[in-house]
Specification:
Radius of gyration: 18 Å
CATH architecture: Clam
Strand content: over 45%
Strand order of the largest sheet: 8-7-6-5-4-3-2-1-17-16-15-14-13-12-9
Distance between the termini: 29 Å
Structural class: mainly beta
Shape: globular
Number of helices: 2
Order of helices and strands: HEEEEEEEEEHEEEEEEEE
Helix content: under 10%
CATH class: Mainly Beta
Number of domains: 1
CATH topology: outer membrane lipoprotein receptor (LolB), chain A
Number of strands: 17
């Protein structure tokens, strides 16, 4: 991923509470429940499960906390973990990532911008990298698909509105500035609603919303469920022969 200039700060709450309220909670959770979403994604390459991502999103007292970990099949130890904490206005409080083989990093606000603190795995040597980006920038780190779900919610809340049983979004793609901490870089990405789509998942047909996520060197398709709080259900990355399915 090439480093590039970021041009668009966020302007709405990161988890789109008005959007979630419109969608309704089909599982009849208590309205006061802090859990926004939890579960797992299976990541398949050429049809073979390579890793499982378990995730948990909570929201309370104006803060959202997103946690995720990756495990390979038939193992009990997480190979990577991440935790993101943001305010209801999308301001980054902290992002932390670590891997079982050693090495960790964190991203924190520094005045009006961001700074990444990196600890190498073997030597334990620390370094820092500044990002001249607003604190409302989106964290879109490698390998964690729950962070893509948060980005889609942000897009739907900021640039779309309910239109009967579907969504009406501004025409054309919307650009977001993101940072990729594991790559130590930043870039613009574009998000665009394609529309309603019938998708078969585990043998059952679902009515979902298809959204495209593109950048300078990648093209992804993602599907969310408008009947279940716009939760991310499926991702395809054709260039990498990869499919991600909610378990």
């Amino acid at each position: 991923m090439k480093q590039s200039t970021i041009v668009r700060p966020a302007i709405v709450a990161v988890l789109g509470l008005s959007l979630l309220a419109w969608a309704g909670d089909k599982k009849s959770k208590s309205a006061s429940s802090p859990v926004v979403d939890s579960g797992s994604f299976g990541v398949f390459v050429k049809g073979q499960r390579m890793v499982t991502e378990s995730f948990h999103i909570e929201q309370a007292d104006g803060l959202s906390v997103i946690k995720a970990e990756l495990k390979e099949p038939n193992t009990s130890t997480a190979i990577q973990k991440c935790e993101l904490e943001v305010t209801s206005a999308g301001e980054l409080i902290r992002y932390e990532w670590s891997q079982d083989s050693g090495g960790s990093l964190s991203v924190l606000p520094s005045n009006d911008f961001l700074i990444e603190k990196i600890t190498a795995g073997v030597s334990g040597k620390a370094s820092e990298q500044p990002f001249l980006m607003p604190t409302t920038s989106v964290v879109l780190d490698n390998n964690f698909f729950v962070l893509r779900e948060v980005l889609l919610w942000r897009y739907l809340a900021a640039d779309c509105k309910p239109d009967g049983t579907s969504m009406k979004c501004q025409q054309g793609p919307v650009e977001f500035g993101v940072i990729v901490p594991q790559d130590h870089n930043s870039m613009p990405v574009r998000v665009e609603l394609v529309g309603n789509d019938k998708v078969t998942i585990r043998g059952a047909e679902r009515d979902l919303l298809k959204i495209n996520l593109t950048g300078e060197s990648f093209e992804w398709s993602l599907w969310v469920d408008p009947q279940d709080q716009f939760k991310l259900m499926r991702v395809t990355i054709p260039a990498e022969k990869t499919e991600v399915i909610r378990d």
